């Protein structure tokens, strides 16, 4: 994210908070930049149509500005999440799951499996570390001195589009079609969005891993290398698809209504 965009985001946010009476010096003091810089940014925001002037230092944000502010916030949140992940990668001690008995001082290879970090003496990828506190196979161990990049498997999402109650709900679902697809999948996380989607998952004897903040949960699971099976009710699928496109996550959509 460009520094200029961050500054414009801050100034636009300040205008939103203080409108209509906006004191450029106050904004400059809050952001630790010059009044001239604030003035230049405000001219650019006016030119882009994100704010409009009512004269005598009065500015109000426009609908276009609100949309851009929301977009900037999303971009900035992704940027901060990336930085946070980088900080996490460089902390001194990490937990991992031992794939065999490991002892203090052992040199191990690291890899992601089912969304969790695993440690093994077998060569898997290039990331390596040293065992600080050992443990038995399947237990958590403490690792340190991480070197290299931890490979994260490329994930995909299968969206089962579930008919809403107005179109028959769970009674109008082709369960055999879903079972056929599930038999081809391994190591997946289950997500449900909407009451009917949850009911369908339970009818298939699945316990949803993700039920709340579903879109964020799906994205986070994929970022950790997990495949996701998502039971999404009706038009809710559109929101999920938009986010997956934004995040460049692979997905397929299967409409499982019986009348399709």
Euclidean distance between termini CA atoms? 43 Å
The profile of the biggest β sheet is:
5 strands, mixed, barrel
Number of strands: 11
- H/E element string? HHHEEHEEEEEEHEHHEHE
- The chain-level mean pLDDT equals 89
Q: What is the chains' assembly state?
A: single chain
CATH architecture title of the largest domain? 3-Layer(aba) Sandwich
Q: How do the strands of the widest beta sheet line up side by side?
A: 3-5-4-6-7
CATH fold descriptor of the largest domain: Cobalt-precorrin-4 Transmethylase, domain 1
InterPro entries: DUF7839 (IPR057161), HTH_CRP (IPR012318), UCP_HTH_arc (IPR012015), WH-like_DNA-bd_sf (IPR036388), WH_DNA-bd_sf (IPR036390)
GO biological process, one term: regulation of DNA-templated transcription
GO molecular function: DNA binding
Organism: Methanocaldococcus villosus KIN24-T80
What does the model show?
With 260 residues, the chain is an alpha/beta fold. The chain has three domains: 3-86, Winged helix-like DNA-binding domain superfamily/Winged helix DNA-binding domain (Arc Repressor Mutant, subunit A, Orthogonal Bundle), CATH 1.10.10.10; 94-147, no CATH class; 156-255, 3-Layer(aba) Sandwich (Cobalt-precorrin-4 Transmethylase, domain 1), CATH 3.40.1010. Helix content is 40%, strand content 25%. The protein has helices spanning 3-18, 24-31, 35-48, 63-89, 175-182, 195-203, 214-223, 236-247, and strands at 51-55, 58-61, 94-98, 107-113, 116-120, 128-133, 140-147, 156-162, 188-193, 227-233, 250-255. Strands 3-5-4-6-7 form a five-stranded mixed beta barrel. A four-stranded parallel sheet has the order 9-10-8-11, sandwiched between helices. Helix 2 (24-31) packs across helix 3. Pfam families: DUF7839, HTH_24. One of its GO terms (biological process) is regulation of DNA-templated transcription. InterPro entries: DUF7839, HTH_CRP, UCP_HTH_arc, WH-like_DNA-bd_sf, WH_DNA-bd_sf.
